[in-house]
Design goal:
It is built from eleven helices and eleven strands. It has 308 residues and is α/β, with parallel strands linked by helices. The protein has two domains: 106 residues, Nucleotidyltransferase, domain 5 (2-Layer Sandwich); 182 residues, Nucleotidyltransferase, domain 5 (2-Layer Sandwich). It has a six-stranded mixed β-sheet with strand order 8-7-6-9-11-10, with helices on both faces. Strands 3-2-1-4-5 form a five-stranded mixed β-sheet, sandwiched between helices. Helix 4 crosses helix 11 and helix 8 packs antiparallel against helix 10. The chain is globular and about 50 Å long.
């Protein structure tokens, strides 16, 4: 049996086609990410999806659903997260996606999204040795925070700290260099929101820290490109010192120059400094030195449930 998951995120729309290998492990048949940002306006008081963004998003969803069907998926599940969840016209977007695909996409609540991310991480063989750990998944619209003790989920929080949201709130000119004032404003807001959330920080002694989402994937991709190796051969342990070095290097560049950085997808070049500043604020508050990066998050959690 093959299952497919289409994840309609704020900054990208992703597909995973997965199956169970002999013996039970979840294995990837195919994966694809489209950098289609539907979340323009998410930083406003009343977020609303624009007509063009919805049309591009629906076309992306329809294309990925068609690909899943070509690959023989027996079941296809489509889910939407922060951008659609927070938009005043999010239901309209889902109606358009249903008309284009014949599927019934569903909106995940914040804590449901966090729980499914945790389930996805549980399928990652590289994390099997971790018992007590925190997880931070940074998306375009939200930051999901999870705490596991003895591999059981103890606490979860979904916070409005996504990098696209913060970009719109604090960076007046995304095409200009990312200056120290931008970093200070974003860092202060991230720390204040985390403190108010009640999520336990700093990270308790003995706990590992796992990071997921496009930002850390991009950090590894940039580092891999500079070494001339595939992303899979770049260390999955992403040191906070590397995040600081990248922000110090890329922050002073304008958008056109950032788009020329090897390994940095041009569609993410505007939001990348904001995302780095968000992770650095989190690391400072949590006394975090490194993140264990995993590519298995929300889609893998849903797929694991479909293949239970």
């Amino acid at each position: 049996m093959r299952v497919a998951v289409v994840d309609i995120g704020s900054n990208s729309i992703k597909l995973l086609v997965a199956a169970r290998a002999p013996g039970g492990p979840l294995v990837e048949v195919a994966t694809r990410t489209l950098d289609v940002r539907i979340s323009g306006g998410i930083g406003s008081d009343r977020p609303r999806l624009g007509r063009q963004a919805m049309e591009q998003g629906v076309a992306a969803v329809a294309g990925l659903v068609s690909e899943a069907r070509r690959l023989g998926a027996d079941v296809i599940d489509a889910v939407a997260t922060s951008a659609v969840r927070d938009a005043s016209n999010g239901r309209e977007f889902l109606d358009l996606a249903r008309a284009a695909t014949g599927l019934e996409p569903r909106i995940l609540a914040g804590l449901e999204e966090a729980d499914l991310i945790g389930r996805g991480l549980a399928t990652d063989p590289a994390l099997q040795s971790l018992r007590d750990f925190h997880v931070y998944d940074l998306g375009g619209g939200s930051l999901e925070c999870l705490s596991f003790r003895d591999r059981a989920l103890e606490r979860a929080a979904s916070l409005p700290l996504g990098c696209v949201r913060l970009l719109e709130m604090f960076v007046a000119r995304p095409s200009a260099p990312f200056d120290e004032a931008d970093a200070l404003a974003i860092g202060g807001h991230v720390r204040k929101t985390l403190r108010r959330s009640g999520f336990s920080l700093p990270v308790p002694p003995g706990f590992a820290v796992v990071g997921t989402g496009g930002t850390l994937t991009t950090v590894r991709a940039v580092a891999a490109a500079r070494r001339g190796v595939p992303l899979e051969r770049e260390s999955a342990l992403v040191k906070v010192s590397l995040l600081r070095e990248l922000l110090a290097e890329l922050g002073p560049l304008d958008l056109a120059a950032r788009r020329r950085i090897q390994g940095l997808p041009p569609a993410r070049a505007d939001v990348f400094p904001t995302a780095l500043a968000t992770f650095l604020a989190l690391a400072d508050l949590g006394a975090i030195q490194a993140f264990h990066h995993s590519l298995r998050n929300l889609r893998w959690g849903i797929a694991a449930g479909l293949l239970k």
